[in-house]
Specification:
Number of helices: 19
CATH architecture of the largest domain: 3-Layer(bba) Sandwich
CATH class of the largest domain: Alpha Beta
Shape: globular
Helix content: 25-40%
Strand content: 15-25%
């Protein structure tokens, strides 16, 4: 054999591993249950069901409806797939806000709250990505209180009580903590992985011990009783974020009857004016307008901001408002009203004397990054920084009922832990508040106890700013317009102070960061009036907007959808997301949104004669 031929053979043998490795990777990628979803570049002209929005509820609905192989389902998402590197790391949740995967909403300026934020406005990050806000959130798995759902049922929404809905919480759940998975309130084997972060600071257990000292129990807040303290559980898997895209879409990406289209911005639902039937959606995709038809139904799961936005652009909303903007009215409905959100006093900070907190230089270093990206462990697995949750009673709450009115997010970090870089930017804290009160906390060991108002009486609204679909809506949350809301937050601040005085936290040298707010000091340091003023300045959204397409029976003039989530006055159109909540739940809203998606899928199957 000529020398050249021998060389060619040897070179071929030497290079053979490269194409083999490539083929192996492609085979693995194709069969990997957590591989990226397949996306359609050219959707069909008609589907049985169109789901608008692939977020916490929409991904669930599309996954469950496509279980029927006789139905073809189209899932439309305005954003793209979730970024792997940053979105995976739970502790870096705040870094995702105000990026390309965030709609970047802001509220209108307020006079009753957010006074210490830039322009007196609150930033409202909402996920523009497969998985929606479950890609941006802090991953906390909280279901709310039994009485929240029993109250929904009492409003005339049959089968929306707690005993009915527990089944749907459990249907999704794959709880990796054996001591919980074996109880009647949890389950294993579902799509959604739930577990504690695999790493924690010494403060995590100290927070729980502090709660016991002031009279509360360490308990499963998602179990039989809610009142108490608990190491936080989150939607994470092997130390990484488990979004609804990862949980519900990636494992079923081979289903030929589920088509996922990304970068598809739905502009409106097209509704027949005579028969009032929703028959198609208009979307912008790949630079051109497309109309896609639905044989059976269109399901809006675009979230508490975008679902009412799309409804109003489609002619479903307050008639006077739509008429002012020149939008033909299909159905006069209270769309955009009943807006509710959880808020907290974000400024309650405490110093400690020991190096036990999430100071940036200590946890965002090469060693922590290596531990996380190689082994899925270490400080970067903490759930957005939140280690412990507590549900407690203020003096305005009936302590004989297991229905606390204040939640605490207990965090081994403050706005100063990263020198005012990421957290301050994400929250929109003003330069004045930062410079005068919190800058001195830069890179110091400190922690936050954030009291959260669980059932605010203050309600706001969302309206169209323009009939142009690409102009964001007007968001007016009306935080703290009801005096009792402010009074409960004041009591929450005082409970946080009481926690810091327990022996469990005093052993670390815990003490209040007591630099006064210049705007409030005239009211007398640490009086109730002072704390109320502080809460009105450092008002933090907890990112839980809901209620803008209220579920209710036919006698409720404010109801937009019926108990089967069908839009009143419009055939073949439903809303399935946080918009439908009649009242906000007592806790973080991601798990309830996933539950709503699960229940809605069963409702739709029942209505179309498919076994559930």
């Amino acid at each position: 054999m000529p020398l050249l031929s021998v060389f060619a053979v040897l070179l071929g043998i030497w290079l053979l591993p490269i194409p083999l490795a490539y083929i192996g990777y492609e085979v693995y990628e194709f069969n990997d249950p957590e591989g990226r979803p397949f996306v359609e570049l050219d959707p069909l002209p008609i589907y049985d069901f169109i789901v608008v929005g692939a977020g916490s509820a929409g991904a669930v609905v599309a996954s469950r409806l496509s279980e029927n192989p006789a139905w073809n389902v189209l899932l439309l998402e305005a954003g793209g797939d979730e970024p792997e590197i940053v979105s995976n790391a739970p502790a870096l949740a705040a870094n995702l806000q105000m990026t390309r995967i965030d709609w970047g909403y802001r509220t209108e300026p307020m006079t009753t709250a957010c006074l210490g934020l830039e322009g007196s406005r609150s930033k409202w990050p909402r996920g523009k990505v497969l998985g929606g806000s479950s890609v941006l959130n802090y991953m906390l798995y909280v279901r709310g209180n039994r009485r929240d759902y029993d109250r929904w049922e009492s409003f005339g929404n049959p089968e929306w009580g707690y005993d009915d809905l527990l089944y749907y919480f459990k249907k999704s759940e794959d709880n990796r903590n054996p001591y919980l998975a074996r109880t009647p309130y949890h389950a294993a084997g579902g799509y959604l992985t739930v577990q504690e972060a695999p790493w924690r600071t010494p403060l995590a257990t100290a927070f729980v011990q502090a709660g016991i000292e002031i009279g509360y129990e360490n308990r499963d807040i998602n179990g039989e009783s809610q009142t108490g303290f608990m190491i936080a559980q989150g939607t994470i898997r092997r130390g990484s974020r488990c979004s609804t895209s990862r949980a519900f879409l990636r494992p079923i990406r081979h289903r030929p009857n589920l088509h996922i289209v990304i970068h598809a911005h739905v502009l409106k639902v097209n509704i027949d004016h005579v028969y009032k039937r929703a028959w198609s959606v208009t979307m912008l995709h790949q630079g051109r307008m497309r109309i896609i038809q639905a044989r059976n139904e269109i399901i809006l799961s675009a979230g508490a901001v975008s679902s009412p936005h799309i409804l109003m652009l489609s002619g479903v909303g307050p008639a006077e408002h739509l008429t002012e903007l020149g939008i033909p009215v299909i159905q006069d409905a209270a769309v955009g009203l009943n807006l509710q959100d959880h808020i907290g006093f974000g400024g309650l900070a405490f110093r400690v004397d020991q190096p036990i907190t999430l100071v940036q230089s200590r946890y965002e270093d090469m060693v922590s990054a290596f531990r996380y990206y190689v082994n899925g462990e270490g400080p970067m697995t903490v759930l957005g920084g939140v280690e412990t949750l507590a549900f407690v009673h203020s003096k305005y709450s009936n302590v004989s009922l297991d229905w606390p009115d204040v939640q605490f997010h207990l965090i081994p970090a403050t706005i100063g832990s990263d020198g005012g870089q990421t957290i301050r930017r994400a929250l929109g804290v003003s330069n004045f508040l930062w410079e005068t009160v919190y800058k001195e906390l830069s890179f110091t060991d400190s922690f936050s106890a954030i009291p959260v108002l669980l059932r605010p009486k203050s309600k706001g609204y969302i309206k169209l700013r323009s009939a142009h679909p690409f102009i964001p809506p007007i968001i007016v949350p009306n935080y703290l317009t009801e005096p009792e809301d402010a009074a409960i937050l004041v009591e929450g601040a005082k409970l946080g102070l009481a926690l810091s005085q327990t022996s469990a936290l005093r052993r670390f040298g815990a003490r209040l960061h007591d630099t006064p707010y210049p705007q409030c000091v005239h009211l007398g340091l640490f009086t109730d009036e002072y704390w109320e003023c502080c809460a009105r300045h450092y008002t933090s959204t907890i990112y839980h907007p809901c209620g803008t397409a209220k579920m209710g029976n036919a006698t409720d003039p404010d109801a937009v959808v019926d108990p089967r989530l069908r839009v009143y006055g419009v055939h073949s159109l439903r809303v399935v997301d946080a918009s439908i909540m009649p009242t906000i739940v007592s806790g973080n809203t991601n798990a309830p949104c996933i539950m709503i998606g699960e229940k809605a899928a069963d409702i739709i199957k029942q209505d179309w004669g498919f076994p559930t």
